[in-house]
Design a protein that fits this description.
Elements: H1 2-15, E1 23-27, H2 32-43, E2 47-51, H3 57-67, E3 71-74, E4 87-89, E5 114-121, E6 128-133, H4 134-147, E7 155-158, H5 165-178, E8 181-184, H6 190-199, E9 204-207, H7 209-223, H8 228-233, H9 235-242, E10 248-251, H10 258-266, E11 270-276, E12 283-286, E13 299-300, E14 305-308, E15 313-317, E16 324-325, H11 329-335, E17 336-337, E18 340-349, E19 355-360, E20 365-366, E21 372-373, H12 375-384, E22 390-398, E23 401-409, H13 415-423, E24 434-437, H14 453-462, H15 476-485, H16 498-501, H17 506-520, H18 535-548, H19 562-583, E25 584-589, E26 602-605, H20 612-619, H21 622-625, E27 628-633, H22 636-640, H23 645-652, E28 654-657, H24 666-677, E29 681-684, H25 703-710, E30 715-721, H26 723-726, E31 738-744, H27 755-770
Parallel strand pairs: 1-2, 1-3, 3-4, 7-8, 7-9, 9-10, 10-11, 23-24, 25-31, 26-29, 26-30, 27-28, 27-29
Antiparallel strand pairs: 5-6, 6-16, 11-12, 12-13, 14-15, 15-18, 17-18, 18-19, 20-21, 22-23, 30-31
Helix pairs in contact: 1-2, 4-5, 12-13, 15-17, 25-27
Length: about 775
């Protein structure tokens, strides 16, 4: 499937004139489509320019001027800001042409050929594009696989973005090389990670240190602070609660707190910390199963030479070192001297060859989801704001996390507005979450007028902590905020600004809305956590949502168990088939439309009677029926008839799906997605309730389009006629017998389609089938 997808897209690129050495931008969220697009570009001999899909239009345009892409490959949710560059959606269908074969593709035959340009800076300043060749990537891949071998039976769960070199190497190059599976997690909240570990057979998880700390903090908050001896005594039980399959945690991108590392090791998980740069393809060194040291980033990979300069700077040489910076020979010559790459990181090497990294000389800050944040980019935005004379952005350690702090030369009353204005032009992972006004007329500077960042950091570290708030009731929300942000609860009052004063970065923003949903039973959009939002504002928002969206009930995972699947056909025959044959003369047509379908399918049907679920189950062919789940409206089955719910779950594999105007649809979507991922087919009634009118179909719920588009599987429209005459709406006793017709329509695909359009298409198809 991946090869066919890449081949079809490569042919589409060829039709657009993309050939050897052309640059092609790739801007999309993590998905298998991204991987296929990557290889489609390489198949044309072109050069991949991966971009952060959360980049602002200005950032994309600035990098575009440097890379000059011939074409942009995008996910359907992204709008390319440069109208002069043609675009293709990576999630649209691209069938392989019979007239075009793989032999017509253009490949670069030499390993020195350029594979990709990764921009590690320049989102607001001068672009800095790292040129990596096919040989660079292959050399690093071979070395990584020798250090951390994988087998086809392994399964990688990754939390890293694919536009990042670290994410590429660990999240698809290694998995494809070894033939193992990989799961991409779009939103790395602790709840999403926990569910992914439960529902996927992950053996390896790839994270950045801050995420690993957040997971452990959340886990310990649920169990209480467990002493080391008790954690060791209950290790197997605790480990099984996290994951029954996870063995290895690969961690890189920033220093890992040794305390956190030892906690994970004490639970029986193998934590392998590594080190690298985009300029080194990216991995330079890593700990392994047989050779590791706490606080160390391991030994250099095979083929990578590492030494220290006289001032302690780490230098690297070997086939993993980049070709240089794109169209920037001066910058290239400054960092590659006599074949040795200057990493600008300080470190030491012990007698056994283990490398230790002390810190980044350039003060690069690692974003909460693994993205690199370069202070000069943020400073450029701040310095554009009227009233800001100058700024210095640094990473500060606060409550065990690194926050992005801006020291400003400006009038005190202009500081908050200046940061808010800059944040509007920065990507989510670049958001400035903490700031202060520099107390002197100017920053400490060198002879060349550069700000002495070390002096700035030392001064900021000495600044007194925020004083506790005076009075005010400690509420459950304040306790939750204190726990998520690792802030003393008595420093939080109603006027506290959540983003700026509690240093709520993009990762913690996702974590906060997830925790609010878990603990208060309400759903809040991440984008509602604005820089101006106070604790009082958030509390009011939570209270409003409580009244609108009650918490969804428990999902019946037991009904997917093997024993339930074996019992289900028997239950259907014993409880329903005998009387159904007496009441209904069933006529089925259109099953030929299902013949070519492979994998999971979404069935969508009209709804006029309580018989519809029984009839649809009977009509759906055995190959799909044996792994079928039915979305049942929570207000009906689980609200009006809860006594019947267990029987419906056993007999028809029913599960709760929110359809009411005041219900939160996201848990239902999550469960549908999980079932489809596990190979189940799902039946949904898009009207959301029984149609009690004289019209053949009532308007479909808006969530129909969301399900159709986001699930990414074929949608089969299904029309049922006649059940309303046998068992009219809201009745439980049959009124007579008669004919029932079931028609299957052709499967529909909604890649690149808007939600409203998808809803209209499904509704239109079912209306036609009913004519």
């Amino acid at each position: 499937m991946l090869g066919e997808r890449a081949e079809g897209l490569a042919q589409a690129l060829a039709a657009k004139g993309v050939g050897p050495s052309d640059r092609v931008a790739l801007c999309a969220e993590n998905s298998p489509h991204w991987v296929a697009a990557f290889f489609a570009i390489l198949a044309r001999g072109a050069v991949v320019v991966p971009l952060n899909p959360k980049s602002s239009p200005d950032q994309i345009i600035r990098i575009g001027k440097s890379a000059e892409p011939k074409l942009a490959l995008l996910s359907s949710s992204i709008v390319w800001p440069d109208e002069t560059v043609p675009c293709l959606a990576i999630d649209s269908p691209y069938p392989v042409s019979e007239t075009a074969t793989t032999r017509e593709r253009a490949f670069l035959q030499q390993s020195g050929g350029l594979a990709e340009i990764i921009y590690t800076s320049g989102t607001t300043g001068d672009p800095k594009g790292v040129m990596l060749s096919h040989g660079n990537l292959l050399a690093d891949l071979d070395a990584v696989m020798k250090a951390v071998p994988l087998t086809p039976d392994d399964h990688i769960l990754t939390l890293l973005p694919l536009f990042h070199a670290y994410g590429q190497m660990t999240s698809f190059l290694c998995s494809l090389h070894s033939g193992c599976s990989v799961t991409y997690l779009a939103t790395p909240t602790t709840r999403a990670i926990r569910e992914a570990l439960v529902h996927t057979p992950a053996t390896h998880m790839v994270v950045v240190p801050e995420v690993l700390k957040t997971i452990m903090d959340r886990f310990e908050s649920q169990l209480g602070r467990m002493p080391g001896f008790l954690r060791h005594a209950l290790r197997d039980r605790i480990r099984a609660r996290i994951s029954k399959t996870l063995r290895t945690i690969v961690c890189g991108g920033a220093p890992l707190d040794p305390t956190i590392e030892e906690k994970w090791w004490s639970l029986g998980f193998e934590v392998l910390q590594g080190y690298g740069l985009t300029e080194t393809s990216p991995v330079i060194s890593t700990n392994t199963s047989t050779a590791r040291r706490t606080r160390s980033v391991g030994k250099p990979l095979a083929g990578a030479e590492v030494k220290l300069a006289q001032d302690g700077e780490i230098l690297v040489r070997g086939p993993i070192v980049m070709q240089g910076y794109y169209r920037d020979p001066q910058r290239t010559e400054a960092v590659i001297v006599d074949g040795w790459l200057k990493t600008e990181d300080a470190g030491r090497i012990d007698d056994d060859g283990f490398l230790y990294v002390f810190g980044r000389k350039k003060y690069m800050i690692l974003g909460p989801s693994g993205e690199n944040v370069f202070p000069e980019d943020l400073e450029a935005e701040l310095n554009r704001v009227p009233g800001v004379v100058d700024s210095a952005v640094v990473g500060l350690s606060r409550n065990g996390r690194t926050v992005i702090h801006a020291a400003l030369l400006c009038e005190p009353d202009r500081a908050a507005a200046a940061v808010a204005e800059a944040n509007r032009h920065l990507a989510p992972h670049q958001q400035i979450t903490s700031w202060s006004v520099w107390p002197e007329p100017d920053f400490p500077r060198s002879a060349t007028r550069k700000v002495k960042k070390e002096d700035v950091i030392e001064r900021l570290k000495r600044e007194p902590a925020r004083r506790p708030s005076q009075g005010g009731r400690i509420t459950p929300l304040k306790r939750l905020l204190a726990e998520v942000t690792q802030t003393p609860v008595d420093t939080i009052d109603d006027s506290t600004r959540i983003v700026s004063e509690l240093s709520l970065d993009s990762l913690l923003r996702i974590e906060l809305v997830s925790r609010i949903e878990d603990e208060f039973g309400v759903y809040i959009e991440e984008m509602q956590i604005t820089p101006e939002l106070t604790v009082a504002d958030l509390d009011a928002l939570v209270q409003r949502q409580k009244g609108r969206m009650p918490k969804l009930g428990h999902y019946p995972r037991w009904s997917n168990a093997a024993w339930a699947c074996r019992l289900r056909p028997i239950a259907q025959r014993v409880l329903f088939d005998w009387w159904l044959s007496m009441l209904c003369r069933l006529h089925i047509s259109g099953t030929e439309n299902l013949a070519s379908l492979q994998g999971p399918v979404l069935f969508m049907a009209n709804h006029r009677s309580f018989l519809d679920s029984v009839i649809a189950t009977k009509a759906i062919p055995e190959g799909f029926r044996s792994r079928l789940g039915i979305a049942a409206g929570t207000e009906v089955l689980y609200g009006k008839y809860p006594w019947f719910a267990p029987l419906a779950e056993l007999t028809f594999n029913a599960f709760p799906f929110p359809t009411g105007a005041r219900e939160n649809i996201r848990p239902g979507l999550d469960y549908v997605g999980r079932m489809l991922d596990d190979g189940w087919n799902v039946l949904i009634f898009p009207e959301g309730q029984l149609n009690r009118s004289d019209q053949p179909v009532q308007p479909f719920k808006g969530g129909t389009g969301v399900v159709a588009v986001e699930m990414g599987v074929p949608v089969v429209p299904l029309a049922i006629q006649g059940t309303e005459n046998i068992l009219p709406p809201d009745t439980h006793i049959p009124r007579g017998r008669g004919p029932v017709t079931v028609r299957f329509g052709p499967p529909l695909s909604f890649a690149g389609t808007g939600y409203a359009e998808a809803t209209a298409r499904v509704e239109s198809c079912i209306r036609r089938l009913l004519e």
